[in-house]
């Protein structure tokens, strides 16, 4: 079950942040041809003529590649936005290493093995326990808060990974079942008093998207 955390009646939204998962990738960990087509279609259907003022990515090239593919239908959009460097805790080398390298469960499984048989959030719980899970969820949630403060405009697009986006959404009161599929996204908004809410969790249905491409 997927739920959101709506904005209270009367609150004034001042900034919007769409945080999504990258598109389909190939064996080289770049986005695949199918991934390019999927992101192109999602961009046309879900972004349309929306003006993106700020972009956020991680250290892995597929996030930048996905952003470019999402905005292909808007000539000049990548040049017009402010592209920010990877934010600590959401897309840095150090965070990836901390989460995924050198830590195994009692059965000898690492993060990627557990995530493949289950999902990323289960992997975090198995490797770091419930307190560790809460710690990571807080880090990802606060990273969203920091990125709001970095924004030069009022409408950002970020491309990240699961389970970071999923857990950030949880931190702000949403629920997501399983891992976010490729090209899915969460819409965060910030109100005038600095509060952050989750107004939409959009799960990408590849067949439906490509049928309308």
Model description:
The chain is 42% helix and 16% strand. It has helices at residues 33-47, 61-70, 77-80, 93-100, 111-117, 120-150, 164-171, 206-211, and strands at 13-21, 54-56, 82-84, 155-160, 185-191, 196-202. The chain has a six-stranded mixed β-sheet with strand order 3-2-4-1-5-6. Helix 5 packs across helix 6. The mean pLDDT is 95.
Helix and strand arrangement:
Layout: E1 13-21, H1 33-47, E2 54-56, H2 61-70, H3 77-80, E3 82-84, H4 93-100, H5 111-117, H6 120-150, E4 155-160, H7 164-171, E5 185-191, E6 196-202, H8 206-211
Parallel strand pairs: 1-4, 2-3, 2-4
Antiparallel strand pairs: 1-5, 5-6
Helix pairs in contact: 1-2, 5-6, 6-7
Choose one word for the global shape. Answer: globular
CATH topology: Rossmann fold
Structural class: alpha/beta
Give the strand order, joined by hyphens, for the main sheet: 3-2-4-1-5-6
Measured as a percent range, the helix fraction is: 40-55%
Query: How many individual domains?
Result: 1
Order of helices and strands: EHEHHEHHHEHEEH
Tell me which CATH architecture applies here. 3-Layer(aba) Sandwich
**Number of H- or I-type helical stretches:** 8
> What is the CATH superfamily?
Phosphoglycerate mutase-like
Largest sheet: 6 strands, mixed
Annotation, overall tally of beta strands: 6
How far do the termini sit from each other?
Answer: 27 Å
Point out poorly predicted stretches: none
* Share in β-strands: 15-25%
Using only C-alpha atoms, the radius of gyration works out to: 17 Å
Calculate the mean pLDDT score and round it.
Answer: 95
């Amino acid at each position: 079950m997927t739920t959101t955390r709506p904005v209270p009646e009367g609150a004034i939204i001042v900034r919007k942040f769409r945080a999504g998962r990258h598109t389909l990738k190939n064996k080289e960990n770049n986005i695949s041809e199918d991934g390019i087509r999927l992101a192109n279609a999602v961009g046309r259907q879900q972004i349309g003529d929306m003006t993106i003022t700020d972009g956020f990515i991680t250290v892995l090239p597929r996030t930048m590649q996905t952003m470019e593919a999402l905005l292909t239908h808007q000539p000049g959009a990548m040049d017009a936005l402010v592209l920010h460097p990877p934010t600590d805790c959401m897309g840095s080398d150090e965070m990836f290493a901390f989460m995924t390298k050198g830590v195994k469960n009692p059965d000898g499984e690492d993060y990627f093995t557990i995530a493949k048989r289950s999902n990323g959030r289960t992997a975090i719980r198995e490797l770091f326990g419930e307190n560790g899970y809460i710690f990571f969820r807080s880090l990802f949630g606060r990273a969203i808060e920091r990125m709001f403060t970095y924004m030069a405009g009022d409408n950002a697009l970020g491309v990240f990974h699961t389970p970071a986006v999923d857990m950030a959404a949880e931190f702000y009161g949403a629920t997501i079942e399983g891992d976010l599929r490729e090209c899915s996204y969460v819409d965060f908004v910030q109100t005038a008093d600095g509060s952050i809410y989750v107004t939409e969790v959009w799960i990408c249905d590849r067949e439906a998207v490509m049928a309308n491409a």
